[in-house]
Each structure stands twice: as structure tokens, then as C-alpha cells.
Amino acid sequence: MAVVDVALAGRSYEVRVGAGLLDRTHAEAHAFIESYGKRSVPVVADANAKRLLGGRLQASFRSAGHAIDWYEVAPGEGSKSWEELQKLTDWLLERGITRSDHVFALGGGVVGDLVGFACAILKRGCGFVQLPTTLLAQVDSSVGGKTAINTGAGKNLIGAFHQPALVLADTSCLATLPQRELRAGLAEVFKYGVLGDADFFARVDETSGAIIACDDAVLEPVIAHCVAMKAQIVAEDERETKDARALLNLGHTFGHALEAETGFGERLLHGEAVALGMVLAARYSARRELISLSNAEQVADALARAGLPTEIAALGMDCDGTTLAHHMRNDKKAGGGTVPFILLRSLGEAFVARDVDLSDIAAFLDEQLQAH
Ligand code: GLY
Description:
Blueprint: E1 2-6, E2 13-18, H1 25-28, H2 30-33, E3 41-46, H3 47-63, E4 68-73, H4 82-94, E5 102-107, H5 109-121, E6 127-132, H6 135-141, E7 146-151, E8 154-161, E9 166-170, H7 179-196, H8 198-212, H9 216-236, H10 243-246, H11 252-262, H12 270-287, H13 293-305, H14 321-329, E10 341-346, E11 349-353, H15 358-370
Parallel strand pairs: 2-9, 3-4, 3-5, 5-6, 6-9
Antiparallel strand pairs: 1-2, 7-8, 10-11
Bound molecules: glycine (GLY).
């Protein structure tokens, strides 16, 4: 097992990564179960995660004499809604959750974000433990305390920074994921290499087959490396008030525009949009002569080898660059009339560019939509 500390004054916590952690939840999270005494422990679970992994969690709690009170969440972004938030907070209040209790979240980013936000506002803040079951949640969303729901105006626009008390990332859970979802999570793994560690980028490229095959011996150090990079960034810039945390948005401004155009759904998964977004960020960096075109194509080639989409022309979107650029104006990171873009100084060194002209982005995207 690898243990990574997220060092935050007064709110530090551990992210433990390894195969079989789910079966030891009662022991690993002992301190956060004690307050329940004889009461059942509330576990909010994605319906698929509950079906595939709920038995293992139940057995773990039962071995310590605890029962689980399940709350099931439908898979998909639609569950990050005001309605679901209200239902969940009502459910938790009915169960008499106190500020010293911890709610357990079993699932991917949707459940983690929803539970985290519910716990941020419930009685002005109660604790939660993340049990992330997707690659994307294990390397990104379960760590760092960003919690949110979506509204008609956009994704993640209502939320709070609220850190978990513990994250248990059991790599053996990943074997239950569809291949497409695993590959989508791999995009966020590559992201750490592209934004800050060229050697790690090369390592992920070499081992992407083993990651997709859920080889625990490869998964544990790779996931722990991503978490360690994220922990360092979050410790430096918890609330994204400096540029450090913004670097984690590499590929996301382009990616969100593609997700908005394709309806935030199955047509293009978030991780796939991030893969395309990283390629676009790299190619746009080359257009601005910050990196060479061959460096930009190194990013695209590695993602393509991992089975991720790299060409927006292949998406068959009926739109132009201006339409995509328009989606970016509504990005929550936009401010003062400009949209910050994460660009590359080299493969392994990202920075925040605040001087990007959206009409130039639109022209660049028009070229990309025609290309290949
Ligand atoms: N997912 C980006 C962040 O946590 O800051």
C-alpha cells in the first residue's frame, strides 16, 4: 500500500492506494466509524459500484459489527443536481447525522462531488470518506476537496471546497470498469506527466497497456504518483487562488467546450474530452511557437497508443471554432473578459496563459475541425 499525505493546516489527511483496501475499510477508516456506535453507517453509492463492490464493503463493516445504511445514486452527471442534493441531505438529516459523523462515498467523481458538497453544507460541515472506484476519481476528483453539483448554466457551478477526512483508493476496484471508462481515466493520468513530469509521461506511455489491463503492480505506483503530484499542488494552492492548482485544468478548457457541444454524456466522456483538450493545448502551444510541433505530436501519439481520441475532426460535430470558443466564455474560470488557458513551455512544463485571444482559438479550432 502507498500512503500520500495531503498536508493542509489542521485538515491534513491521507490518501491510501493499494489493492484490497475496500475489504479493510472498517480497519482503515476505524476512526471515522466509531462515532456511529450501534447506528448504521451511511454509505452513498453509485448504483453500479454498489452492485459490483457493495458486498465487499458490507462484509468489511459487518466484520466490525457495523451495518450499512445505503443511499443509491443513479450513475451519470444527472445525479449532480439540486434535486439529488436535496434528497440526499434530507436523507442524512433523517438519520440524525451530526457534525462529528462521517459519510462514506463509494463510486466515481459524480458520487464523490455530490457527497462532498452535501457534507460541506450539512449542519455547516460534517466529515466524509472517499472510496473512489474509478481511475479518474482515484487520481483526481477524490483528492483535493473540490465538490460541486451542476446547474442549467453549467457544470460544477455550485460547490464548495471541502476536504475529505480520508481517501481509500482500492486499485482492485478498477477491474470492474468498462475499458472505455478506464481509458478515459488514463487521460487524467497522462495529464500529470504533460503538465509537470516528462519522465512520468514516458512511463505512463510505456505502461498504458498494463494500466488498462489493471495490473495492480503497475497501478499502485502510478496512481500514488498522480496523487502525490496533486497533493503537493493542493497543499500549495488549495483554493486555486494562485496558478499552481489551475495547472490541473490542462486540457479542460478545450475539453469542456467539446463536452458542452456533445451534450456532456456518453458521446464523449470527460476523460476523452480531456485527452482531446490536451492535444489541442499542445498543438496550440506549438502554433504559438512555445513548443515544437513534434513535441505536440508526442502528446497526441501517446494518447492515441492508449486508445484515446486525439482528433476533433473525427467527432463529427456540426459546429465551427467560433461555437466552441463561445462555450469557453461560460467557463467558470473565465474572468475579466479573458479565458485562462493552460499551455505548454515544454512537454512536462505547463503554465497559465492569460493573453489568449478567443478569435485566434476559434481560427485554430476551425483548422483542427478540418484536419486529418
Ligand atoms: N480537478 C482539478 C482540481 O482538483 O483542481
